[in-house]
Specification:
Elements (H helix, E strand, L loop, with lengths): L3 E7 L12 H17 L4 E4 L3 H6 L6 H10 L4 E2 L4 H7 L4 H11 L5 H29 L4 E6 L3 H10 L3 E9 L6
Parallel strand pairs: 1-4, 1-5, 2-3, 2-4
Amino acid sequence: MRAAVWVIGTSHRFQARTHWTSNSEQEQFKTLVRDAVLTHLALAIAEETSHEANAKEGVQSTICDEVSQEVFGTCALYVDPDNAERVALGIADVTVIRAELRDARGRIADAEIAAKERAVRCSDQKREREWIRRLRGHNRFPVLLVCGADHVQSFCTQAGKHGLTVEIVVKDWEPTHQG
């Protein structure tokens, strides 16, 4: 049987308890993660983050950490490389490339825009391959992976090519607004 990965895509702002989200949104996300773990009999939770990224945002633990602690007694697996690891892996800083694109639109040639967009896709694909390597190294399948919605399709394609069975739980989760 192939290793199974269940994927939840969302905006990163929902992954932690921050001032960017309400308690209601945080609890909705926590319920989604917990329900997905229990429904799909996941043996672990992994997410697109790193200790360095969390520290930069002032996050001590993520909502996936909370669920993982409650269900498995351990923190979630952080699969995203930190900045030093990205440099070592030859992964470009997409935030810089995207900022360059945003600032240069209308002032640079279409070919240069296309090249920068390819560089973003290439960088994302390298990161996603690193996630797959780390998931395989952790070897706790089936696993629930929470990542940015922009990564869901390309991750699923790459993971399938690397022998993983992948199913999307939610492609781009958004909270329901109660009012």
